[in-house]
Specification:
It is a single chain. The protein contains 15 helices and eight strands. It is mostly helical. The strands form three sheets. It has a three-stranded antiparallel sheet with strand order 1-3-6, covered by helices on one side. The protein has a three-stranded antiparallel sheet with strand order 2-8-7. It has a two-stranded antiparallel ribbon with strand order 4-5. A hairpin with a 2-residue loop joins strand 4 and strand 5. The longest helix is centred in the middle third of the chain and has 32 residues. The chain is globular and about 60 Å long. The two termini are 29 Å apart. Bound molecules: protoporphyrin IX containing FE (HEM).
């Protein structure tokens, strides 16, 4: 698929659905129940797996909840945590930007955003890594993650906090407890790995292009410009997680059966020669955020995290260059869903001390207000049960 085909696939919702219950491979019983694909592509009652009115209901709840994040506070919490991470390895003159910086920083930000206790952060980050990496135990990781999110929703129902979970519960869309848990999963799947990929992609770009690097270092170009440029070069979401044909049809010259899965490749669309000329710095015609009704609803929050992360690195480290591994020879996860290399080793000149010795980031900074406690019974409804693929047995009727 080129740029135009991806646009058609994503925009033509009469022909292509986001609802995995149409998937013929499942209906015909030929996909193993523990397929790692299901962790990301399987149906769930959440915005990314729904169409039409149901999608609008969930989407409105998620979008309005995300809009409640205080971006200034988010930037400041991310900045403080980023400084703490840099202080941890800065004296070594080498570091791995993926494992020692972007991953822990993004997992901290999401932990605070959804209101997860600090003690759960590492375990949840490992589960998300298994799912995004498409590892053989992705289905087990997904089931464990869902148990954790259902528990979190139950806790926030009792005692709301300053977090997305509590606000999703409080939203006038009156999502059930299970729907809130699955929308949290959608937020984590869609936002976590992509933001890690965006931070590492922007650093890879800056290290590979001296002109760009010096333009940012001297203030002739902003980190925002560089980060946008990186979205052309390697989409942090390399492939969108699926559309299913509603009927038999011909698409891009291929015969497609009703229920066939099509995976739009954003990374390829962005390099389509058709739009190559528009890749000027500053142009945002790339498809890295997706497009249409399912396009990313969290650009501002993602920007706040990723740009702050890159800004701290650019300010604190000087003479940053690829470490003991050529950026062209980086190893990538064998996954459709991750645009992040396994590692991004860097070397740099002795670290500049932080202007004021930074205090450790507060364990749980406050990034939004606290909603009123919700009283109705739907909030307590946590079916479908958190067991792995409980919906599987009921596929026959779909
Ligand atoms: C704070 C970080 C982020 C959060 C919370 C987040 C959240 C989400 C959610 C909930 C969706 C599903 C929307 C729907 O189906 O209606 C979505 C979609 C999407 N997001 Fe994000 N996202 C984040 C960061 C990013 C980043 C950094 C990128 C890449 C630059 C990105 C690219 C996308 C794309 C391509 C889609 C569309 C998927 C599709 O059409 O099926 N997101 N995001």
């Amino acid at each position: 698929m080129g740029y135009q085909e991806v646009l058609e696939l994503v925009w033509n919702e009469r022909a292509f659905s986001s609802d995995a219950r149409r998937w013929n491979t499942i209906v015909e019983g030929s996909l193993p129940e523990d397929s790692p694909l299901l962790a990301v592509l399987g149906w769930r009652p959440a915005l990314n797996r729904l169409d039409d009115q149901a999608h609008r209901r969930h989407r409105q709840a998620v979008t309005e909840t995300l809009n409640g994040i205080d971006l200034r506070r988010l930037r400041s919490a991310v900045r403080r945590q980023a400084e703490v991470l840099v202080d941890g390895w800065g004296m070594n003159r080498t570091a791995d930007i993926v494992t020692q910086y972007a991953r822990p920083l993004v997992s901290y930000a999401f932990r605070v955003l959804i209101g997860l206790p600090g003690a759960e952060e590492r375990r949840v980050a490992a589960l998300l890594g298994s799912i995004a990496g498409g590892s053989h135990d992705a289905a087990r990781a997904e089931a464990e993650l869902m148990r954790t999110l259902h528990r979190l929703v139950a806790e926030k129902r009792e005692v709301p906090g300053p977090d997305l979970t509590s606000w999703l519960l409080a939203h006038s869309a009156q999502l059930t407890g299970a729907e809130v848990a699955h929308n949290l999963a959608a937020i984590l799947f869609s936002g976590g790995e992509s933001t890690i990929g965006w931070i590492s992609g922007t650093m890879r770009l800056l290290m590979g292009d001296d002109r760009l690097n010096s333009a940012v270092a001297t203030g002739r170009m902003t980190v925002t410009d560089a980060a946008d440029r990186a979205l052309w070069d390697g989409s942090p979401v390399p492939n969108i997680s699926g559309r299913w044909a509603r009927n038999d049809l011909t698409f891009a010259g291929c015969r497609v059966r009703a229920g066939d899965l099509l995976i739009p490749c954003l990374a390829a669309a962005n390099t389509d020669l058709l739009i190559h000329d528009s890749q000027d710095i500053g142009s945002r015609a790339h498809l890295a955020w997706g497009t249409g009704s399912h396009g990313c609803p969290a650009k501002d929050a993602a920007r706040s995290i990723a740009e702050t992360a890159v800004d701290v690195l650019m300010r604190r480290l000087s003479l940053v260059r690829p470490g003991d591994c050529d950026t062209a020879a980086l190893r990538w996860q064998p996954s459709l869903w991750s645009g992040t290399p396994d590692q991004l080793p860097v070397a740099f000149a002795p670290i500049r001390p932080a202007p004021n010795a930074p205090a450790a980031a507060p364990a749980t900074p406050t990034l939004m207000g606290v909603p009123e406690k919700r009283q109705d019974a739907r909030a307590a409804d946590s079916s479908p049960t958190p067991q792995a693929w409980g919906w599987w047995n009921s596929m026959n009727g779909w």
